[in-house]
Every structure is written in structure tokens, then in C-alpha cells.
Amino acid sequence: MAWMAWTVPTAIFFCVIALALLTFTVLAIRYPETPRLGVLRIETTRGDRLFITLLGSAFINLAWLGTMSDPQWWALILCLVYATAVFRWV
Amino acid sequence: MEKTVNQKAWFLVLPVLVLVAFSAVIPLMTVVNYSVQDTFGNNEFYWAGLEWFSEMLDSERMWNALSRQLVFSAIILAIEVPLGIFVALNMPKKGFWASLCLVLMALPLLVPWNVVGTIWQIFGRVDIGLLGYTLDKIGIPYNYTQDFFAAWATVIIMDVWHWTSLVALLAYAGLQSIPDAYYQAAKIDQASRLAVFRFIELPKMQGVLMIAILLRFMDSFMIYTEPFVVTGGGPGNSTTFLSIDLVKMALGQFDLGPAAAFSIMYFLVILLISWVFYTVMTNLEKREGA
Amino acid sequence: MTLAATEISRPKSRVLPWVNGSAVVMTLYLVFLLLPIYWLLNMSLKTNTEILSTFSLWPQDLTFDNYRTILTDPSWYMGYVNSLIYVVINTVISISVALPAAYAFSRYHFMGDKHLFFWLLTNRMAPPAVFALPFFQLYSSVGLFDTHIAVALAHCLFNVPLAVWILEGFMRGVPKEIDETAYIDGYSFGRFFMKIFMPLIASGIGVAAFFCFMFSWVELLLSRTLTSVDAKSIAATMTRTVSASGMDWGVLAAAGVLTIVPGALVIYFVRNYIAKGFALGRV
């Protein structure tokens, strides 16, 4: 495993993603998913919204890194806002 | 077909899951790990944070490669899709000639990608290649290793040669699925050739054309071997597309950190485009089914 | 196809009544496709002096020396053998893991099925350039570098998703009643799958195998990165020899022609399904 060059932050990062996947799986077992039509006019389930959130967050972080000089924490806050919006309206 | 809900089906998918996790997830995790660290060899790594990402976002080199890539993909889609449809419309419908056309058209698709490069490398040379020799004799200056325009033209024609058949074969498959009754109805209505194409053939080809555009876009977006063999990314950097640049960085210079950061951004773009295509495609299927 | 349909599908106004417009288009297109391949064949049958000294549309001094060089020199022909070995291993692995998965996708709904399917798709779309470096590190660390199995496993990255897609498309076309009848007749899943289901989708399996074979055969970047001597592929042999021997055009062309042969042979068997295969079974 040495060649994979693990670091604490990346390990935490993957744990968070794994945890999110696990949570959503448990949620899907407890409360079955029902697709709905959101503002994008496409059918999404809870899992789809998680994917849109994660992918969007990646791009938000990159955009922040490329254009702003403020610390990266602000981008994460922006991602939270984005996540709420996705889960509410998409 | 009506599918039944059966969670045990997961066991059938398990082998694929394990295999693809091994060959996709582990490497991707490694790439993420490399992207936040610096190394001087010997498996010694130092924390670098998001440095590589901001470096790559500021680098001219990456943005240039990306814009070249987008221009290239746009050009070949603009040529291959209409040409492919046009060829498919003119293909024999059945019998010996149809089979012959299918086999001959599929031939370029089966040529190993480096041999595609070799073929055009030879074909385009002014001294020994038919294309280069002819152009030279007509009086058109043509040298794909020196001239920017000639290099691009060669790479684009090579891709058209290599992949137009894919679009044509897909469009042909779509056309084959149209029942004769549609054409007969059109004939009774005295529909023009254009109207038949616009209102019968094109809608029926929609699904397969989506697949064709998706495959062509994605494959052109990660093109490496063919232009690498022909031009080596030159003259200068004029045909250095994303993959060529990335391989140069990762395996040529062994700059693990920047290459990994580059890889992640490359992959995110691919992920986004795949998702958009997939969503549009499944929604199309649903609408057709409804 | 009936007469009416064929008449409509052709343009009505022809400039020359005895020339068929479609035939002209197809001829032009096929000439465009075949000319470069012919030129490669032409080169491979010439001596190097002839290639460089005279320009001719066909070999003046026909020679098979270039082919003889390749077929007698182990550093050349072992390239073909190595390529064939990993391509076959890859095809077998891909098809055998893809069959049950494709069955699951075509017959059942299960939790996360759509997301799983999409994830497989992204692997087909992922650029090999992104994976080249981590694959190199991964297979070096487990001691598989420069083996056939390493390349075969690496190619599974895009071939397994492809096989699942194609097979799923073909399996959709088999009515579900067949499964149910078999189960009522007392078949176990395994026996039903082997005895009844697989023969029904034999053409689909053939097409999927063909595509796995093809995409593994044409790939260069991963096979070159993961091998050095023992499992060196023909593609890598070709690119390396180009720089080393000072452009031996004749041999290079002959090697190229020989790489096209296997594909051209197998394509004959799947000619009626190629289009459907490329559409991932979705026509």
C-alpha cells in the first residue's frame, strides 16, 4: 500500500465520500426513493442529487481555487449552499 | 420489458464490481493521493496541499491543450456526424453488396491505433506517400511535420478516415429498424426526399445518433496514439492534445503531482460530460417508451 | 424491403439516368477508406531501396522479404504472440464477468442499478492516459509488471463495461417468459443460464467477444506502459523499432498489414451484427 502514498487528509476525504454513500444506501433501504421532476426537467432520485452535489462541489472548489485568493474554506461553505439548493429544488 | 425488483441481483453484478473497483477505484484514489503531494522519487512524499491544482489552473499549457482539444473534437464531430449519416443513407439496404460495404467500412475500425498513425504517416509523406506526393506534384506545399495547417489537416483527415464508419454503421442500424410501412405512407403523402429524412429517418435515428455522438466525442477527447505517432504533438505544440500532454507530463517527465492534478480535472470534465449525455439519453428512451 | 421503399430512398432527379447516385457515393467513400490501406500493402511488398528511390503505384520488384523478416525474427513475431495472449485473456475475463451482470441489469431492478450502470459507462469513457501512471505503479507493486495478465486486467477497465452494455442490449430482446417457463420446469438458475439462455444470445456473446478482442487489440498506451520485454505487445514493438532502426519502411508497413489481418478475419463472422454491436445492442 506504500505506493499509494496515503495522507491523512485524502483518507478523510475518501472516508467522507464512503460515509455519504453508506448513509444514502441506508436511507434508501429505510425510506425507498421516489423520483421527482425538478427545475432541470429531469427525473432525479436522492442518489442522483447526491451525485450532482458532489460533482458540482468539485467544480465549485476548482473555480474558487482558480479565481479567488481567499481561503478554500469559503468554497466549502458555498458548496453547502449549493447542496441545499440541489436537494431542495433539483 | 417489465423488470421485477430483486435485490439478490446484486450477487450477479458482484464480479464486475470487484474487477472494475480494482482497475478503476484504486488507481483513481492513488491519483488523488499524488495530487496533493510532492515527490523526489524513492517513494518519499511531501504534503503540497492544493498547490498543484492552482498551478495547473494557472498554467497556459493546460488551457492551451484544453482549447486545442475542444477545437479538435468540435471539428471532427462537425465532419463525421453529417458525413456518417450521408453515407448510411446511401448504403445498399440488403444482400451481398450490403455485407461487403459493412465489412469494408468496419476495416479502419479494426486497425490498431498506432498502425492508423503509421498508415497516415506513410501516406502523407512527400517522398513516399501517395497523398503527400500527389499534393506536392500539384504544387500544394504540404509537410505535416513542419507546417501547422498541414499537421492539423492530416490529424483531422486521419480521424475522419478512422471513425466516420462508426457513425455510418450506427446510423445504418437505426435506418434498418424503420418499418417499410413508414416509407409507403410517405409515398402516398407524396413527401419529398427531404421530408422523409426530416420526419421519418432522423427521429428514428435519434437514439443511435446520440450514442454515436457520445462515443465520438469521448474517444476524440482522449485521443492519444494516432496523432502521437504521426506528429508527436508537433510542430511545436500545435497538435498536443490533452492526453498527449498528460502522458508527456506523467510518464515522460514523471511529474507525479502536477500530472495527477491534471488527471483529476480531466476526469471531472469527462464525468460531467458523460453524465449530461447519459441523462439526456435515458430521458429520450423514457419518452420513446411512454 | 419492398420496391416502393427503395424507390423513395433514392433521389428522384438523376443527372445521368444510368448512374446510380448511391453507388457513386459508396464507391467514393470506400475508395477513400481503402486507398491508405492499399498504400500500406503496396509499401510492404517493396524493397526499401525501391520505396525510397522510385515512386510507383504498385510494386515493380515484388518481394516478400519484409514479411520473412517479421516471421523469422522472434523480437518481431513474439510481439504478435504476446498481443494475442493478453487479448484472449482479456476477452475471456471480460465476457465471463459481464454475462451474469448483464443478465441482472436486463432482468431486474435493484438498489443503485442505474448509478452502477452509469459508473460502468464512465469507465468506458475514462481516458487511458489518466490511468497509465497509477496502473504502472499498481502492477509494479504487486509484481505483475511486464506480464500478460497485467495488460489483460488493465484493458478490463474499458472492456468489461463495454461487454456489459452490449450483452444487456442483446438480452433485452429475449422475452422474460422463457426464464419463467424454465424455472417452472424445475431448472436451477445455473443450468437454465448455461443450457437455455446462453444459446439464445449466442450472437450477442459473439459480438461482445469481438468488440473486446478489437478494443484490446487496437490499444497502445496501456499495453506499452505496462510491458517492457517479456510481454511486449506488437504495437509497442512497432513504435520502438521505428526510432531504433532508422525507418525501415518496408518492414514497418509489413508489420502494420499483419496487425490488420486478425481483425479482418474475425469481422467476417460478425458482419451482420457489427452495427448493432456498435450501438451497444440498442437498436
Automatic annotation (TrEMBL), chain A:
Transmembrane region(s): 6-29, 50-67, 73-89
Pfam families per record: DUF2160 (PF09928)
Keywords for the protein's UniProt record, in alphabetical order: Membrane, Transmembrane, Transmembrane helix
Official protein name in the record: DUF2160 domain-containing protein
Organism listed in the record: Roseibium limicola
From TrEMBL, chain B:
Keyword Protease: no
Alphabetic keyword roster: Membrane, Transmembrane, Transmembrane helix, Transport
Organism lineage: Bacteria, Pseudomonadati, Pseudomonadota, Alphaproteobacteria, Hyphomicrobiales
Organism: Roseibium limicola
GO terms, biological process: transmembrane transport
PROSITE patterns reported in the protein's UniProt record: ABC_TM1 (PS50928)
Principal location class: membrane
Protein name: Sugar ABC transporter permease
SUPFAM superfamilies the UniProt entry points to: MetI-like (SSF161098)
Transmembrane segments: 12-36, 70-89, 96-123, 149-175, 196-218, 259-278
Mode of membrane association: Multi-pass membrane protein
Residue runs in coiled coils: none
Ranges for domain ABC transmembrane type-1: 66-277
Subcellular location: Cell membrane
Family per record: Belongs to the binding-protein-dependent transport system permease family.
GO cellular component: plasma membrane
Classification via CDD domains: TM_PBP2
UniProtKB/TrEMBL annotation, chain C:
A GO biological-process term: transmembrane transport
Residue ranges of every copy of the ABC transmembrane type-1 domain listed in the record: 80-270
InterPro entries documented for this protein: BP-dep_ABC_trans_perm (IPR050901), MetI-like (IPR000515), MetI-like_sf (IPR035906)
Transmembrane portions of the chain: 21-41, 84-105, 117-136, 148-167, 196-218, 249-270
Membrane disposition: Multi-pass membrane protein
Keyword vocabulary terms for this entry: Cell membrane, Membrane, Transmembrane, Transmembrane helix, Transport
GO cellular component: plasma membrane
Intracellular or extracellular location(s): Cell membrane
Chief location bin: membrane
Family: Belongs to the binding-protein-dependent transport system permease family.
Name of protein: Carbohydrate ABC transporter permease
Record organism: Roseibium limicola
Classification lineage: Bacteria, Pseudomonadati, Pseudomonadota, Alphaproteobacteria, Hyphomicrobiales
